[in-house]
Amino acid sequence: MRYQRPKGTADILPDEAKKWTYVEETARMLFNDYRYQEIRTPMFENFDVFSRTSGDTSDIVTKEMYDFKDKGDRHMSLRPEGTAGVVRAFVENKLYGPEHPRPIKVFYMGSMFRYERPQSGRQREFHQIGVEAFGSNEPELDVEVMAMGMDLLSHFGLSGLKLTINSLGDQASRAAYRQALIDYLDPHFDELSEDSKVRLHKNPLRVLDSKDKHDQEIVKGAPSILDYLNEDSKKHFDQVKHLLDALKIPYVIDPDMVRGLDYYTHTIFEIMVDSKALGEGYTTICAGGRYNGLVEQLGGPEMPGIGFGLGMERLMVLMEAQKVKFPVLDQLDAYVVGIGEQTSLETLQIVQSLRSDGFAADRDYLDRKPKAQFKTANKLNAQFTITIGESELKAKTANVKSMASGKEVTVPISEILQDFDTVLTKYFNDKEID
Ligand code: ATP
Ligand code: MG
What we know:
The relative contact order is 0.11. The protein is an alpha+beta fold. Helix content is 38%, strand content 21%. It has helices at residues 14-33, 47-54, 59-64, 83-92, 139-155, 171-185, 194-202, 213-219, 231-246, 294-297, 312-321, 344-356, 370-379, 390-395, 413-418, 420-427; strands spanning 37-38, 44-46, 67-69, 75-78, 104-113, 125-134, 161-167, 252-253, 265-274, 282-290, 305-311, 334-338, 361-363, 384-388, 397-402, 408-412. It contains 16 helices and 16 strands. Helix 1 (14-33) runs antiparallel to helix 5 and helix 5 runs parallel beside helix 9. The chain has two domains: 14-170 and 230-321, BirA Bifunctional Protein, domain 2 (2-Layer Sandwich), CATH 3.30.930; 334-433, Anticodon-binding domain (Rossmann fold), CATH 3.40.50.800. The structure holds adenosine-5'-triphosphate (ATP) and magnesium ion. Magnesium ion is lined by residues 59, 260. It is an enzyme of class 6 (ligase). This is Histidine--tRNA ligase. InterPro entries: aa-tRNA-synth_II, aa-tRNA-synth_II/BPL/LPL, Anticodon-bd, Anticodon-bd_dom_sf, His-tRNA-ligase, HisRS-like_core, HisRS/HisZ, HisRS_anticodon. Homodimer.
């Protein structure tokens, strides 16, 4: 029997994982600058947490959810997205309480699960980096969240990003629009795809999001939601645009964009990029928006929220395609070469001592000849080699060599064990110490 990973999942091997770490660490630093703190929630939740919030007609609930009954007959689901679980945690732990200064700003990173047809940048287990901010309805916060998404992606040196925005307005605006949309779509009912027929009366906005080509043709003539925004909603959206302009963040308005989840209100946005590596045309890598009713829906007080989710896999495909340089994070400071079996104890002591001084150090564990050990040191790009042969062992010294300059010095082993930092500054210059 040969075992294979489940369809739509990926093994992230060490060379690739290094890049992931770099992306995640960069995101952590940036989120810290914006004062967002990490939150970690369970990978599975009660099915209802997602079905209630995403909407019965959403792709997620109708087709994509990994749900199951556990041994206690509870209906559970692997999380298909991050927001619902974060909001559930927010409510359950009463983060809306007066002791938490508002807005409450959090971020998360982790696996999400959707039963989809796997392709480039689309998997069944995938990873998102996401943020949520609760407790402010100010357009300034909408703009902060969008700016942060753009900032993060530009930090990685990506080019050709396009920020697309729209507004779904508040509940009243949406209700007015909903009726107008039904009135427009009803005469086309017979031409619509099966999915859209079902959605037309349950959730007509979703028809705008249809991936069916013919549906998309029909949708082109539909009324625009922007014409149905009431005064407050219009004011909010105008201010968002004004602030984006003021921050010189370019954007385009797409009045047909609705997003796949039911809980959005007011500003919604997607950051897209046109890259062949992810298929024809523009692909969304980061998406989000305001969800002013969601906290209440999950049993909390009335409290506005806004956030985004960014797909790690798509980001990695894009960075690869745009040949973004990843900094080397795994520098090997020293490789300790032992010549002859009797040096094994000393080399082990030195390696351990270097590590406890904060240096990345390694040695041979396969009893290999000196030549093979030096070759490894070279291959691993070690900054220094520390060599002990028979004569060094007798003299209780080691040969320390800078691989950059070729300079070699003989140093008492005791000095190395004492503090390798001191050895470096005593015998080598700045250029040799990276
Ligand atoms: P799409 O229209 O491409 O299916 P979506 O609207 O379902 O996207 P969201 O729920 O908004 O996606 O998720 C936000 C981001 O998460 C997406 O922009 C994408 O980068 C990523 N994402 C979503 N589904 C997947 C998946 N199956 N595999 C990899 N990344 C995904
Ligand atoms: Mg989807």
